[in-house]
Specification:
Blueprint (H helix, E strand, L loop, with lengths): L3 E2 L14 E20 L2 E22 L5 E13 L7 H10 L5 H4 L2 E2 L7 E10 L6 E9 L14 E3 L6 H5 L3 H16 L23
Parallel strand pairs: 2-8
Antiparallel strand pairs: 1-5, 2-3, 2-6, 3-4, 6-7
């Protein structure tokens, strides 16, 4: 798929972002392609994407492979089904972020690259996996940034397209993301005998200065 969405016809020692509301910037869009998910014993094939955010007010340190220590903003992300169906979580979060519902025309093809580098407010809640007992920081809502804020990303925003990427771009992804992409490719290989789906419509430009994207 391309980074266009439309209406449908980890590490246990990682420091968790504190719960609450956080000014943030979208710095990553990662397209995993088709994935098999299971809910209530039923398997579904769905295209998945992940949005990654920088949170400048919360800082962390890490050591690189050469032993050098770095300091920077904490990050948090969420994986979504790539759909603008009205009940889809991605649609809900994007609409509350932009402060306006998508029009029917926009739902036919919205370019996610529009949100890259844009500021917002994240509402984060800590949740616990029932099976493992591990906690994670879940983004439960996205809203507009605080008035008057001028947030800028400290790291270069990046977008990874499942259908159009170089071997170097794939190799630069974290291992767990590479595994997702490879799983999507394997699933497509199994489907070669099926009729190819139609190409998504062109992204729609929004001519409204009051809407952030």
């Amino acid at each position: 798929m391309t980074l266009t969405v439309k209406t449908e016809t980890g590490n246990s020692e990682f420091k968790l972002l504190p719960p609450g509301n956080h000014p943030a910037i979208c710095v990553g869009i990662y397209d995993f392609g088709p994935q098999i998910t299971e809910f209530n014993g039923e398997q579904k094939e769905q295209n998945k994407i992940r949005l990654q955010f920088e949170v400048p007010d919360e800082r962390t340190t890490w050591t690189d492979a050469d032993g050098n220590e770095h300091e920077g903003p904490m990050t948090v992300g969420k994986t979504y089904t790539a759909s603008l169906f009205e009940k889809a979580k991605l649609c809900e979060h994007l609409q509350s972020w932009r402060g306006r519902e998508f029009t029917e025309v926009e739902k036919m093809g919205f370019d996610l690259n529009n949100i890259l580098g844009k500021a917002c407010t994240l509402t984060v809640m800590h949740k616990t996996h029932k099976a493992s007992g591990n906690q994670w920081a879940d983004i439960i809502a996205i809203s507009p940034p605080p008035k008057g804020s001028n947030l800028k990303p400290e790291n270069e925003p990046k977008a990874f397209d499942f259908d159009s990427h170089t071997p170097e771009e794939l190799a630069a992804l974290p291992e767990w993301m590479r595994e997702k992409v490879e799983a999507g490719k394997a699933l497509l290989d199994e489907q070669k005998g099926r009729t190819a789906p139609p190409s998504p419509p062109a992204a729609v430009a929004v001519d409204d200065n009051d809407i952030p994207f």
